[in-house]
Amino acid sequence: MDHLKLTLLVSSFIIPLILAITLFVSSKNNLSKKIMGFGLLNAFFVFLANYIYFYKLFETYSYVHSLHIATVLWIFPSIYLYIKSIVESEKQLKKEFWHFLPGFVFGITSAILFGLLLSHDEKIYYLSNYRSGVQFESQNIKMVSVFRSTDVLLIVGQVIYYSVKFIQIPNKYQLELNEEYSNIENFSINWLKWFNVSFVSIGLLCVSFYMFNPFHEKNDFFLILFLFSISAFIWVLGIWSFKQKKPEVVLDSIQELSAENSDSLKIKEEELAKSLMAYFEKEKPYLQPDLTLTTVSKVIGTNRTYLSAVINSNFGVNFNVFVNQFRVRYIEDYLKQYPKTTKEELVDIGGFGSISSLKRAMKKVDNN
User: Fold this and answer.
1) pLDDT digits (tens, 9 = 90+) for 293-308
2) What is the pTM of this model?
3) Which one of 160, 197, 244, 249 is separated from 112 by 20 to 30 angstroms, measured CA to CA?
4) Cβ atoms within 10 Å, residue 136
C-alpha cells in the first residue's frame, strides 16, 4: 500500500511537469498551448506540495503552504482560460484573467495570517493537526483554521461555478462552429461536457473527503486516490491540447456583425439563395473538406453574416447541415454506381472530415 501511495503522489506531479515542458517547447505562437502549459505547471506545484504534506514534511511544507492555497484556487481558472483561449480572440481573453484574482487574494491573506500570526512551532502544530479534529486553543491558530474553512468553501464554489461554465461554453461554441465550418471535428470542444461530469464529481468527492476525513495514515489512501484522479484529468486535458485546433475565423464576432451595407446589397435574398444553389450544384464545393462559410460568401459576392441568415431562413438549417446534405446526396449517388465503396473511402470522396462526421450527417438527413 505504501508503494502504491508513493506512486500515486509522485506521478501526480511528475507527469504534469513533463507535459508542461513539452507544451511550452511546442507552443511557438499558440496561446492556448501556453495557457495549458501554465495550468500543468500550476498542477505540478499543487501536487508536489501534496506530496510534501502527505509525507509529513511539515517543516518544508510550512514555507509553501500559502502558495499551495493560491495554486489550488488556480486549477479551475487555468482550465477555464484554456477553453476560453480556444473560443475567443486574444483581445477578449485579456478580460478573463480576473479569474485568477481569488487565488492571489487568498494566497496573500494566508501569507499574512499563517506567516505573521503563527510562530514556527505553532505552524508545525497547526499543519500536523488541522485535519485531525483537534480543538485549537490559540486564537491565532483559530483564525487560521477559520480561514482554511473559508478557502475550502471557495473551492466548492469554484467547482460548481466552473462546472456550469464548462457546459455553457461548448454549447454556444458548437452553434458558432456549425454556422461557419462544414467539418467541425478538429475544432469542437463538445467532449468537454462529458469530461466535465466526471471531473466535477471527483473534485467534489475530493473536497468532501478532505473536509470530513480525519488525517490518519490508515485512511488517507482514498484522499490520495481522489487527488491523483484530479491530476489525471488535467493530464488528459494537457494531452488533448496537442491536437486541439483553434479556428482561423474569430467566431465570437459572428453574432456581433450586422450585414454590412445590407441596403446596398444588389442581390436580394431569393436571388442569393438561387446563386448559392447554382454554385453548389455546378462547382460542387462541398467536396472540399475545409469548406467554410467565409469562403463561399467570397465566391458568390456577399458577406458571411448575410449568407448565414439566408441559409437559415431559406433552408431552415445552419451552414454545416446545409453542406452535409449535399455531401450525403453525393455519396448516395456514388454508392449506386460503386456499392462496394468503404466508409473510409466515402469520407475522402464526399469531403467529410471523419467517419463520425459522415455517420452523423447521414443520420440527420435520414431523420429529416
Assistant:
1) 999 999 988 888 889 9
2) 0.83
3) 160
4) 16
